[in-house]
Design brief:
The chain has about 500 residues and is an alpha+beta fold. The chain is built from 13 helices and 23 strands. Helix 8 packs across helix 9. The protein is globular.
Length: about 500
């Protein structure tokens, strides 16, 4: 057992800072320099966890209630999941870069005193995609259940780091989380047809979480469709307020000015953070103690947090994040499975928090065209898939792909013509897209194309800068190893 973090924090102050002729100044500056450098690294390390822990505020909002946050977002009380009954609304401003391919569920588990039941579906049509993504408080994917991995239907027991016991009767497996807080996110694929959405809801209603104390034999229906009739609003927010200003309730999940206080609360609630994060958690606890005990260092730490936050958000953009994945697309190759890549994990928390394990879904992003210029709706761009070269995903396990349009703030277009915010598998299955000589050319621009074929394959852009994501769910090996290259985004002279 080491010495208390408060004692370690005291070591940053030299024993004799006031020596004659300023002889103690170098030691003072050395301590301050070290603390500032460490604080910046700890900020990147802790950013996703502070973000996630902040989202557990839904426990208070939803306590004793069932329904949708703001009427448009899944929400649930402690150790439950809630779910939508359709795609996430393009008008929402809480969740950056949501998909428009699945119907979402969400919930946060508190595993500090009890376990939670995770139910998987027993009645699923062949080839239907579903998943339950489980993340720890740091946003590491710790379990990914679903059609891609052939997860059987039934019950799993989600337990925290200190839980001890044997697998109860009626459970398939024990799922361990390394932190007391875990995010549980069900998803069910839905094409644009009413029949497909009914199927998606039917599968999703069999997926979710509830407290172990409520466990009974057999499978339960979660009643998401009935619950969706109830809109739950934070104090001071109403449907009319949101209609007038969609940003009225947009949270700032991580506030640099209160970061060290919020980080301390997160660590108090999550004494264990997993083997790879424990060494940094010790450093973080030392800085939290220093922030609490020393006015001068409190000011230095607050400034370091502000500086780190500015640097993080300047670099966490679709123009900058990721490595080359071919033809101008970028990718974080370790998506979801971050290990000790604290900077990459923090970047992801800003631009697309809670990405799946990359074996489940690969995300490719970009904010520039084939010439390296920023994407803008005033221009006309094309993406052309060669004959026989559509994205290779495993349809038998529910695989699909899509290209989604976002504004420069990483939100879907609230008023896209025809409600079209993405193109991909669902459009191909419905026969909505037009092929020419075996090739498929997608058109991206703000103004509606005049050519009928271009109009059929049009993905509307805002009249401003925009960003793009390709999602490939249940990807083929050639996508995983980047030997398959998605087409470039080429600026054309056409309007």
């Amino acid at each position: 057992m080491g010495i208390p973090f408060e004692d370690v924090a005291q070591g940053f102050t030299p024993a004799h800072p006031g020596l004659a002729r300023s002889a103690g100044v170098p030691a003072v500056l050395a301590g301050e320099s070290y603390v500032e450098a460490l604080a910046r690294v700890v900020y990147y390390w802790g950013y996703p966890a502070v973000d996630t822990f902040g989202r557990t505020n839904m426990w208070d909002l939803m306590e004793g209630k069932t329904g949708l946050q703001l009427g448009i977002l899944p929400g649930a009380a402690r150790n439950y999941t809630g779910a939508l009954i359709d795609y996430m609304s393009p008008t929402q401003r809480w969740v950056v870069t949501p998909n428009n391919d699945t119907i979402y569920g969400a919930g946060f588990a508190d595993l500090s005193t009890d376990a939670a039941v995770i139910q998987t579906p027993t009645e699923v049509p062949d080839g239907h995609y579903w998943t339950i993504q489980i993340v720890d408080v740091m946003t590491n994917v710790v379990h990914q259940l679903g059609s891609a991995g052939g997860t059987p239907g039934g019950k799993f027991l989600l337990v925290g780091p200190t839980w001890a016991g044997d697998k109860p009767d009626g459970f398939l497996e024990i799922l361990r989380a390394p932190t007391n807080v875990a995010g549980v996110f069900p998803r069910s694929f839905a094409a644009h047809s009413a029949a497909s959405k009914r199927q998606a809801r039917s599968v999703l209603d069999q997926i979710g979480m509830y407290p172990l104390s409520e466990n009974q034999s057999g499978q339960r229906s979660f009643g998401y469709e009935a619950n969706a009739r109830n809109a739950i609003f934070p104090p001071g927010i109403t449907a009319d307020v949101l209609a007038a200003n969609p940003d009225a309730s947009r949270p700032q999940w991580v506030k640099p000015e209160t970061f060290w206080i919020d980080l301390g609360r997160m660590l108090d609630f999550n004494p264990d953070v997993g083997a790879l994060d424990t060494p940094m958690a010790d450093q973080a606890r030392t800085l939290v103690a220093l922030h609490q005990s020393n006015d001068a260092y409190r000011a230095l730490l607050d400034r370091a947090a502000l500086g780190a936050d500015v640097a993080l958000h300047q670099s966490a953009t679709y123009v900058q994040v990721g490595v080359d994945a071919g033809n101008g697309w970028q990718r974080q190759r370790n998506g979801g499975l971050w290990g000790t890549d604290w900077f990459g994990r923090a970047l992801a928390a800003v631009i697309y928090i809670y990405v799946n394990d990359f074996h489940e879904a690969v995300y490719l992003i970009r904010g520039t065209d084939n010439n390296g210029a920023l994407l803008h709706g005033r221009e006309h761009y094309t993406m052309t898939f060669a004959e026989g070269a559509l994205p290779p995903v495993d349809r038998g396990r529910g695989g699909f792909w899509s290209l989604t349009m976002y504004d420069k703030d990483a939100f879907m277009l609230a008023n896209a013509p025809g409600g079209r915010v993405n193109l991909g598998t669902v459009n191909l299955d419905a026969g909505d897209l037009t092929f020419g000589d075996g090739t498929l050319t997608l058109h991206l621009c703000h103004g509606e194309p005049t050519d009928p074929d271009a109009r059929a394959n049009w993905l509307p852009a805002p009249d401003d800068e925009f960003r793009l994501i390709i999602r490939a769910y249940v990807p083929d090996k050639s996508i995983l190893d980047s030997t398959y290259h998605f087409p470039d985004v080429v600026r054309t002279a056409d309007k």
